[in-house]
Fold this sequence. Notes:
Blueprint: E1 14-17, E2 22-25, H1 27-31, H2 33-39, H3 48-54, E3 58-61, H4 67-76, H5 80-97, H6 100-108, H7 110-113, H8 115-120, H9 123-128
Helix pairs in contact: 4-5, 4-6, 5-6
Amino acid sequence: xxxxxxPGNVNSLGLWDSLNKKAFFNSIKIENAHISTNxxxxxxxxxxxxxxNQNPNFNYVWGDESFDELFVKLNKNINKNDRLVYAMxxxxxxxxxxxxxxxxKCIKKLIDYDKEVYKSIPKTMLEQLDLKxxxxxKFW
Length: 140
């Protein structure tokens, strides 16, 4: 197995490359997330929009987004599979960053927007956010 270098900006926690269909985690940032969080040092750079525009196929998770910002980014992914992978990236990055509340609110909004993507998120990931899987079957 070949380990690829993280192709994104070093200030981000992770990214979904929608062109190449690959998710990346900035392992250095995630390993130091708790240390950095205690000191408030994980933040988007001032030029984050410029960075995003340089790589339009990169969907970043910076770590300091509000749940609304993450939800907007999540729904920019038109393909349902892309939304699912990006949703799981949000859960993973935000859980490592120890901001479960932001991830929970973002993923919970999927219930109203895209139930199929919500249902596709693994139960264990939902449980990390204190969310319940939706019933896949209707009993009447």
